[in-house]
TrEMBL record:
Ranges for region Disordered: 40-64
Gene3D superfamilies according to UniProt: alpha/beta hydrolase
Species, as recorded: Frankia nepalensis
InterPro entries per the UniProt record, alphabetical: AB_hydrolase_fold, Plant_Biomass_Hydrol_Est, PLipase/COase/thioEstase
Annotated keywords: Signal
Pfam families per the UniProt record, alphabetical: Abhydrolase_2
Signal peptide, first to last residue: 1-29
PANTHER family hit by this protein: BLL1128 PROTEIN (PTHR43037:SF1), UNNAMED PRODUCT-RELATED (PTHR43037)
GO molecular function: hydrolase activity
Protein name: Prolyl oligopeptidase family serine peptidase
Domain Phospholipase/carboxylesterase/thioesterase: residue ranges: 149-227
Length: 386
């Protein structure tokens, strides 16, 4: 028990593996857990500050997370002692047939330390998550991952200075599907979710509170296609398209239909716009023609104002709408977003050259996925249920 309290007081900038064996004695014995420390006293050799002692937590017995029988090791990253609580919590959910260690390659751990949020990477049962119609062991055995994640969130809020209005779930593939499902059933818990190469597989999704959503999907993803699939034999389920996956969240957030010029734009690898409002400036990374082609591949109409390719008259060569050198201005991503009445954000990034998986930082399909997600969701806050 003393070891646990000491670790929490230090709140070192490090990665810890926490197990039920470490946490349970402090909780079941009703001992106070020091959750925060005055940053100015860090390293000074003194005890907990009065502010830290004020947020100590008393519990009378094991909580729902500990009673679940799934309180095994998970990876937890805390911000440094200079970060005053309460701070945001990011829950990173791995893809199918992987575990929480997969998230170490996503760039979130480094960001947690610099941006000042906590990050936890739990393991799904059988390296899977029950996201509705997918996937594998978790679905076959009826694992209640929604209830377990809810208990995990409450457990972390109790034992660490987590801001309850700034909880975010980020998932890859099956983990992204799980993020969608959790947002369907407990939107009031979340400031936002980010789904990379995933789809909504909870077909009766009706969130009763707005949630900010960021989707990142590759145009060459044949495993979980952005356009959806009537049947995916490897997963044993149909796959919902990105547009259909985002629809319940657009509706509850009261986001209008994508129609304006600024609703669809090309971006660089950093997610920043690379296309002028007039669609006529040179040097754009994505031309109107490329945008139309990308949307057509998803079965979506082009937004109003994006001109169709000109048909040249006989013997006349039509000029390019925007001069683009693919070597210097590659089409990294196409971003779609409209302004939602509730203040929540629903943002879709379509990466034409990316395959299934977490987009890397280098190569033709490079995309700063972690930082783009944090830029969009870092300031988001949870909305109360209606």
């Amino acid at each position: 028990m003393g070891d646990v309290s000491a670790v929490r007081r230090r709140r070192a900038v490090t990665v810890w593996l926490l197990s039920l064996a470490l946490v349970t004695p402090a909780v079941s014995a009703g001992c106070g857990a020091i959750l925060d420390e005055d940053p100015s006293s860090a390293g000074a050799g003194g005890g907990p500050s009065p502010a830290a002692a004020a947020v100590a937590t008393q519990t009378s017995g094991p909580d729902a997370y500990e009673r679940s029988g799934r309180a095994g090791d998970f990876r937890l990253v805390l911000p440094g002692p200079e970060t005053a609580g309460p701070y945001p919590l990011v829950i990173a959910l791995h893809s199918l047939y992987h575990d929480g260690s997969e998230t170490t390659g996503w760039g979130l751990e480094q960001l947690a330390r610099t941006a000042g949020f906590a990050m936890v990477s739990p393991d799904g049962v059988g390296k899977s998550w029950n996201a509705g119609t997918c996937c594998d062991t978790a679905v076959k055995t009826g694992v209640d991952d929604v209830a377990w994640l809810h208990a995990l969130i409450q457990h972390l809020k109790t034992n660490y200075p987590i801001d309850p209005a700034r909880v975010i779930i980020i998932g890859l593939s099956n983990g992204g599907m799980m993020a969608y499902r959790y947002a369907c059933e407990h939107p009031e818990d979340l400031a936002g979710i980010a789904v990379v190469a995933g789809s909504l597989q909870q077909l009766d999704c009706r969130p009763d509170a707005p949630v900010s959503v960021v989707s990142v999907h590759g145009g060459k993803d044949g495993h979980v296609p952005a356009a959806g699939a009537d049947w995916q034999p490897t997963l044993g389920t149909p796959v919902t398209s990105t547009a259909r996956s985002l629809l319940p969240f657009r509706e509850v957030a009261r986001c209008p239909t994508t129609t304006g010029l600024g609703d669809v734009m090309g971006t660089g690898a950093d997610g920043a716009p690379r296309l002028s409002d007039t669609l006529s400036a040179g040097g754009a990374a994505v031309t109107p023609v490329q945008i139309r082609a990308a949307l057509a591949s998803l079965g979506l109409p082009a937004p109003a104002g994006v001109p169709a390719p000109a048909t040249p008259s006989a013997g006349v060569t039509a000029p390019a709408l925007v001069p683009v050198d693919p070597a210097t201005s590659p089409a990294y991503a196409i971003r779609t977003e409209t302004t939602c009445a509730t203040g929540a954000r629903v943002v879709d990034y379509y990466l034409p050259d990316a395959d299934h998986g977490w987009p890397g930082a280098l190569g033709p399909s490079a995309f700063a996925t972690a930082s783009v997600i944090w830029q969009l969701l870092g300031s988001a806050r949870a909305h109360p249920a209606r």
